[in-house]
């Protein structure tokens, strides 16, 4: 058998750190970067006699997520103790949710590139539940010993679990990116993967194509970049297929991905739910969420990406691709709308082209967020307006953009004036220049009339050269054709 004879089956479990100021069951800070063990209070380290108190803000963020994915927000959910023993888990158990999660169902639409087209797919969500994070084991710079930092212990997490709906590493990455964009869009998680605010576990199995039986899965833990997610899944799938084709079997296991080698390696046998001995936490009452509370959260929800995408297509006449690109991040969508508001809805397509083109390229090159862009929406709108009314050619507009980016000035018209970039659109002036070009290039005129199209382009080039690139190219083309036809 070959790789193409197998089907990969993938489900993702994602831990999104909720952006509350304090932890899920205590008042300790969740700020990143503090010295080890300086943000772990008595509740976090499970001193005798302490009691957890649920953070209302964490619950509201879970409700927001449930509404965003079209899931069911449970009127009653229960916190459970998930029992396991590891040095960075001070209580010997993790407070999580098991049988009754706060959100169930719903899903996300993803777009996966297939050559020159993009296909849509709906990935179903099983559940999303609230839980606390564990601490962190540190193995470097301890002279052969390990240290424990409990600052993360008790940090609020929303664990988001999919059905096994994805069939390739590309689909898994597309889902992870869509989820990452969504949690940032609805402002429940900062999405900082380097700091561990958004990390994925991938459950991967393989089966012969055409089979409806799931294979034995192995879980790849704590993938904190989209690139690592793709590499890990691709390696793991190939490893499983090779093992099965060699007559071996797959044992359920938890594995780690090593970015240095690009390989996965087994860490431990995979536990089942009963191994954790879940039972309701006796220190926490059931979480009850009223319809009125859900309505309160719904009232302050932002417009969601899919709704905004449809509106951009309807109101601005954008293609589905353009609207999808502009609504991939909330900051980009806001920038675009502010630019259109200043430039006018008639210039929406031009604004979209500049946001997705020149602006995006420059941001990418300089590894900068759009919020920090030196060219603001109002400035881009001014540039687009001068391009639209014929004051600037495309080449001139890029020169003005470079000047704005470099801090030469904030006013588009002032830069145009200072650099003498105003496009020549006066018909009389252009006619005179074209007459001079035709008189100076009789050979090109003769070749064009003999049917050589390249001669026309040469004449256009001469006209643009004569005006130092300031002529309106469209007008030059039209006047030249008129003169040559006469």
Strands, helices and their partners?
Elements: E1 6-17, H1 56-68, E2 72-73, E3 76-77, E4 79-83, E5 93-97, E6 103-104, E7 107-114, E8 117-132, E9 136-138, E10 147-149, E11 156-162, H2 169-185, E12 198-208, E13 218-223, H3 226-245, E14 253-258, E15 263-269, E16 279-280, E17 287-288, H4 291-299, H5 305-316, H6 320-326, H7 330-343, H8 348-365, H9 377-388, H10 394-405, H11 412-419, H12 427-440, H13 442-449, H14 453-466, H15 473-485
Helix pairs in contact: 2-3, 5-6, 7-8, 7-9, 9-10, 12-14, 12-15, 13-14, 14-15
Give the low-pLDDT segments: none
Q: Distance between the terminal alpha carbons, to the nearest Å?
A: 71 Å
User: What is the number of helices?
Assistant: 15
Structural class by SSE content: alpha+beta
Quaternary organisation: single chain
Binned strand content: 15-25%
Sheet with most strands: 10 strands, mixed
> Which shape, going by the Cα principal axes?
elongated
Radius of gyration: 30 Å
Q: What is the residue-mean pLDDT, rounded to a whole number? A: 89
Q: How would you characterize this protein structure?
A:
This protein has about 475 residues and is of the alpha+beta class. It has helices at about 55-70, 170-185, 225-245, 290-300, 305-315, 320-325, 330-345, 350-365, 375-390, 395-405, 410-420, 425-440, 440-450, 455-465, 475-485, and strands spanning about 5-15, 70-75, 75, 80-85, 95, 105, 105-115, 115-130, 135-140, 145-150, 155-160, 200-210, 220-225, 255-260, 265-270, 280, 285-290. The strands form four sheets. Strands 1, 2, 6, 7, 8, 11, 12, 13, 14 and 15 form a ten-stranded mixed beta sheet that branches. A three-stranded antiparallel beta sheet has the order 5-4-16, with no helix packed on it. A two-stranded antiparallel ribbon has the order 3-17. Helix 2 runs antiparallel to helix 3 and helix 12 (about 425-440) crosses helix 15. The longest helix has 20 residues, at about 225-245. The termini are far apart.
């Amino acid at each position: 058998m070959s790789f193409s004879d197998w089907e990969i089956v993938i489900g993702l479990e994602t831990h999104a750190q909720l952006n509350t100021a304090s932890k899920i069951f205590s008042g300790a800070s969740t700020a990143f970067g503090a010295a080890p063990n300086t943000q772990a209070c008595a509740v976090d380290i499970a001193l005798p006699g302490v009691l957890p108190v649920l953070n209302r803000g964490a619950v509201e963020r879970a409700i927001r997520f449930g509404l965003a994915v079209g899931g069911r927000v449970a009127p009653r959910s229960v916190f459970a103790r998930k029992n396991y023993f590891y040095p960075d888990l001070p209580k010997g158990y993790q407070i999580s949710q098991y049988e009754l999660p706060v959100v169930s169902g719903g899903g996300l639409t993803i777009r996966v590139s297939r050559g020159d087209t993009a296909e849509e797919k709906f990935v179903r969500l099983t559940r999303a539940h609230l839980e606390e994070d564990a601490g962190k084991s540190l193995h470097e710079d301890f002279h052969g010993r390990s240290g424990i930092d409990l600052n993360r212990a008790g940090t609020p997490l929303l664990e988001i679990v999919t059905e096994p709906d994805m069939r390739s590493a590309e689909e898994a990455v597309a889902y992870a990116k869509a989820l990452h964009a969504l949690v940032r869009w609805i402002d429940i998680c900062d999405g900082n993967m380097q700091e561990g605010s958004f990390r994925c576990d991938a459950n991967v199995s393989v089966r012969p194509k055409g089979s409806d039986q799931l294979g034995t899965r192995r879980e790849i833990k704590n993938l904190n970049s989209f690139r690592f997610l793709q590499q890990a899944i691709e390696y793991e799938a190939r490893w499983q297929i090779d093992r099965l084709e060699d007559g071996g079997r797959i044992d359920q296991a938890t594995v780690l991905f090593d970015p240095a080698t690009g390989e996965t390696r087994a860490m431990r046998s995979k536990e089942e739910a009963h191994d954790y001995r879940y039972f309701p936490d006796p220190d926490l009452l059931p979480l009850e969420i009223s319809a009125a509370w859900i309505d309160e959260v719904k009232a302050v929800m932002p417009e969601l990406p899919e709704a905004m995408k449809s509106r951009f297509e309807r109101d601005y006449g954008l293609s589905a691709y353009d609207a999808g690109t502009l609504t991939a991040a909330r900051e980009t969508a806001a920038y675009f709308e502010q630019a259109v508001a200043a430039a006018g809805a008639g210039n929406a397509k031009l604004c979209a082209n500049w946001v997705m083109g020149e602006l995006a390229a420059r941001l990418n090159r300089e590894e900068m967020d759009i919020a920090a862009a030196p060219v603001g929406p109002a400035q881009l709108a001014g540039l687009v307006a001068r391009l639209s009314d014929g004051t600037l050619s495309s080449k001139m507009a890029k020169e003005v953009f470079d000047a704005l980016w470099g801090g030469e000035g904030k006013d588009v018209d002032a830069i145009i004036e200072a650099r003498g970039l105003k496009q020549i659109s006066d018909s009389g002036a252009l006619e005179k220049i074209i007459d001079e070009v035709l008189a100076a290039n009789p050979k090109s005129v003769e070749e064009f009339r003999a049917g050589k199209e390249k001669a026309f382009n040469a004449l256009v080039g001469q006209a643009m050269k004569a005006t130092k690139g300031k002529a309106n190219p469209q007008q030059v083309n039209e006047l030249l054709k008129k003169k040559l036809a006469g």
